[in-house]
Write a structure and sequence with these properties.
CATH architecture of the largest domain: Alpha-Beta Barrel
Bound molecules: 3-[O-phosphonopyridoxyl]--amino-benzoic acid
Number of domains: 2
Low-confidence stretches: none
Distance between the termini: 15 Å
Mean pLDDT: 97
CATH class of the largest domain: Alpha Beta
Amino acid sequence: MKVCFDGKLVDSNSAKISIFDHGLLYGDGVFEGIRAYNCLIFKLKEHIERLFASAKAIQLEMPVSKRKLSDYVAATLKTNKLKDAYIRLVVTRGVGDLGLDYRKCKQATFFIITDKIALYPDQFYKKGMEIITVATRRNTPEALNPQIKSLNYLNNILAKIEAVNAGVEEAIMLNQNGFVTECSGDNIFMVKGSKLFTPPVFMGVLEGITRDCVMDISLKSALTSEEKVLTRYDLYNADEVFLTGTAAEIIPVVKIDGRVINDGKPGAHTAELMKEFKKLTKTEGVRYAL
Ligand code: PXG
């Protein structure tokens, strides 16, 4: 398996990060998770844009242009002969010394890993999943804005640990005021009547690309979508709940904090959105040849 390391295709075993890299020492860096479906890189432009926006927010000068980075992604997939893949793009502040001073890091490091996708169990999609609310609150936008897809994911990992300890796979995080934000690696949606709701970005959520995509799909469906401040009460009494993310795509949720959502089965609107989303992944994207 090859990876792209600072613009060079090298064997994954020989790609090494320094112990003085601030990405490791301080989580000082940004990343993206992207997918390719049958030689089409889904929403590549949107992911590259978000990566650059995250870098801008942490005042990290990107070591490569958007165009070059897109080319490197395609080249890495091609070298590894991957038709379907998970793509991880990482940019770190680079090598510095033992101190927070980011100015000591003269050159940002970047790498691209492409690999087979580790899919969620089929059961989740067919039967829906159970999730819980955890005590760990989402980072506040005033401190570390969740819009920044930074290498500092401890907030999300702490939430995930709570979920796993309670025997479920995902965690709903609330913000400081107790309103719903998102899960550890996915955005959350609910359906009530013919309306689709998801928490607004200012609540403290990552502006998910799958989230945007689902809202776009809903424009052409019988559902109207709206960003709305949501409480746990709203979720418990929803007709349907589902999660969205690059890795998860769209996963129905059938139980939250012990409350069965509606009849406990994945809903019809969710199924329709899953179908339409699948169609998009088959037809849209940046093509590469193997
Ligand atoms: N919220 C958070 C905190 C995320 O990390 C999403 C929402 C969904 O965003 P996108 O743009 O992917 O729709 C994410 C993204 C993984 C994995 O391996 C997780 C994400 C992306 C790719 C892989 O668990 N999370």
